[in-house]
Amino acid sequence: MSKQVQAIRGMNDCLPQDTGVWQYLEQVLRQTVASYGYQEIRFPIVEMTDLFKRSIGEVTDIVEKEMYTFIDRNGDSLTLRPEGTACCVRAGNQHGLLYNQEQRLWYMGPMFRHERPQKGRYRQFHQFGLEAFGIASADIDAEVIVLTARLWQQLGLSGHVRLQLNTLGSPEARQHYRAALVEYLAAHDDQLDEDSKRRLHSNPLRILDSKNPDLAELLAAAPRLADYLDHESAEHFAELQQRLTAAGIEFEVNPRLVRGLDYYNKTVFEWVTDSLGAQGTVCAGGRYDGLVEQLGGKSCPAVGFAMGIERLVLLLQTLELAPELPSQADWYLMAVGLDAELGMIPVAEQLRSAFPQKRMMQHCGGGSMKKQFKKADKSGAELALVLGGDELERGCITIKWLRSDKPQRTIPLADLVSELQQN
Ligand code: ATP
Ligand code: MG
Asked: What is the pLDDT of residues 342-357, one digit of tens each?
């Protein structure tokens, strides 16, 4: 035997036993965002590398070390998208969707980051994301968060996720704060770990997000962004909290929540769970008022989020909230002998026209009645429709219930549709 080719590390297949949960989740997502008036947008999986450098930021983990970047045959540097917001803004700018307009958009699809694969962290993973453009006020921040809360409710996850909230203020306020933070951390640089030392001058705010317990004390005593906030951002944040409270949504203000992408200002938030171990963030987002202009469009305020589909699937499975998988088929169609098989072909198609919701599996490969009933049973079907030589001659068909003791019946073929409609 020749050697099998394996999938790339960190890139997963989704097998039939799992696609049911994915479809269920996707359907709840689509339905929920549609009920808030959001429309789907699709964009390519590959973009110019520059797009991500200019949006996510040169000195972020994603751009520094996680992107799948390659030179294509024309010599252009291309990158497999590591996230959707930059792509969405690029598409919005390119097609004139953003200037002087409001847009409520969502997307779903694979993203790529060269990270260390582990539970809940993969190299190809999937995000569902949502972006609202053209509205600067806190009401829309509240809307996208209320929408996520409704999603958790729909999925039965409400008691299992917590909302963390923070504000990053204006870029100017953050600049002042950054200087104060660097000064403080530099004065204690003997206590910093390697990662934090590296970030001290490139991305110091990200140090606040460190998971290293040895830094906890140092960071707890660090200057607080809240003390450097500009008036407008402070008011925006207060109003957002007021609106969330009015919506009955609990939240925790976490002054250390900073997010790993550079484009955020004002509101940032994460929904986290304690049920998945270290990879506990299932949804993350915030406001990014400067990004549209930064990518060459006319200034346009925006707010959005992305959620990790794999983590949500894991959570649904861990908590046993995934709906039970349906059997493979509802009805199993059997025919014994070539004549009966030929007779079954138009009957099967007629049934599919009459009952488009029913999943009908037609036996293939011939064999005895006994063998076919075994397959019918295995398919999980509730009903077998049997055309044997006997029935064929009489222009009849037999209906046999596989999971109940309703009596088996042989009826004229002409009555089949109406008979099944009554059941
Ligand atoms: P994390 O802190 O977990 O690395 P992040 O800040 O890098 O997350 P975002 O870029 O904001 O994440 O992406 C939004 C969401 O996408 C995350 O909250 C998570 O649910 C999911 N996600 C991000 N990276 C991965 C990955 N490598 N594998 C699976 N899901 C991911
Ligand atoms: Mg990350």
From this structure: 999 999 999 999 999 9
pLDDT digits 0-9 by tens, 244-265: 999 999 999 998 898 877 789 9
Measured in Å, residue 325 CA sits from the centre of ligand 1 at 28
Cα separation values, 123 from 66, 151, 186, Å:
9, 26, 34
Contact by Cβ (8 Å): 383, 399? yes
The answer to whether the beta carbons of residues 338 and 390 sit under 8 Å apart is no
- Note whether 185 and 249 are within 8 A (CB): no
Distance 109 CA to ligand 2 centre (A): 17
Contact 125, 310 (CB under 8 A): yes
If you take atom 13 of ligand 1, which residue's CA is the nearest one? 306
The pTM is what?
0.92
Distance between the two ends of the chain, CA-based, in angstroms? 51
Which amino acid appears at position 61 of this protein? Answer: D
User: Strands (DSSP E) along 7-112, which ranges?
Assistant: 39-40, 46-48, 68-71, 77-80, 103-112
Query: What is d(CA 104, CA 130) in angstroms, rounded to the nearest whole number?
Result: 8
